[in-house]
Write a structure and sequence with these properties.
Length: 240
């Protein structure tokens, strides 16, 4: 882990006035140089109308959404989970490059301005107390707080993660769902009742975390739950 941190440290410079990817000096407020801007895996082509993942141009929905709609009413993401965005997300999480939260917030706000994600307030995917103490911060909370400055939606801290589900990657879909059952708790039900809530997270992978959170919020009385992530993993591999 230390090696990865050193590697990332070497390649990502911790200021706003250098390109977030290559470190070159820039003279704009885009956070990226002209060259790197062109390489960003923007999720702005055909997307699943429900979960927002990249799909083939002929599809309206991805295959997993066709099979099973989730408690999340709508999800969108700014990027596909590809290089260099995947590296930047890791740099934020594991190398403490907190300024990247601001970089991501700008891209998320562009998606938010599309108009589908209007909500009463925002919240974020929580970490367990132990995990957050270890990392020192919650990257999704940081991103939500930076986005709040841009879109004016308040961030409410209403969720608690009761148990660690970090080894999700080694489990199959069914085990993941079992593992996530009752993993989250709403700490302020009054705030949630009849509200449309926009949940912020870094990456949409299988979607089981988002689904578990949406179920928890809806059980607590939320009207609608939407999701906005920095990046999403395309689940349909047939189209490439
Ligand atoms: Zn660059
Ligand atoms: Zn979908």
């Amino acid at each position: 882990m230390k090696k990865i941190a050193e590697f990332l440290d070497k390649y990502f410079v911790n200021t706003k006035w250098t390109c977030a990817v290559c470190g070159k000096d820039i003279f704009n407020d885009e956070y990226f140089c002209e060259d790197c801007l062109k390489t960003l895996p923007k999720n702005d082509k055909a997307i699943c109308l429900h979960c927002g993942r990249k799909v083939h141009i002929t599809q309206n929905y991805c295959l997993s959404c066709k099979e099973r709609m989730t408690s999340v009413s709508l999800a969108r993401s700014a990027f596909n989970y590809d290089i260099p965005i995947s590296h930047l997300i890791q740099a934020l999480k594991y190398s403490g490059k907190k300024y990247l939260a601001e970089v991501f917030a700008k891209s998320l706000n562009e998606v938010y301005e599309g108009g589908d994600l209007t909500a009463d307030f925002m919240t974020f995917v929580p970490m367990t107390k132990a995990s957050q103490e270890k990392r020192g911060f919650n990257q999704s909370q940081l991103i939500a707080e930076k986005l709040s400055i841009l879109n004016g939606l308040k961030v409410e801290n209403i969720l608690e993660k009761k148990k660690d589900t970090d080894r999700q990657a080694t489990l199959d879909k069914f085990q993941r769902m079992l593992n996530l059952k009752n993993a989250f708790k709403v700490t302020d039900k009054k705030l949630v009742k009849n509200k449309t809530i926009l949940v912020i997270d870094d990456v949409l992978t299988t979607g089981s975390t988002a689904e578990s959170i949406a179920e928890t919020l809806k059980k607590a009385g939320a009207f609608r739950v939407k999701l906005l992530t920095v990046a999403s993993v395309a689940t349909d591999i047939t189209f490439e």
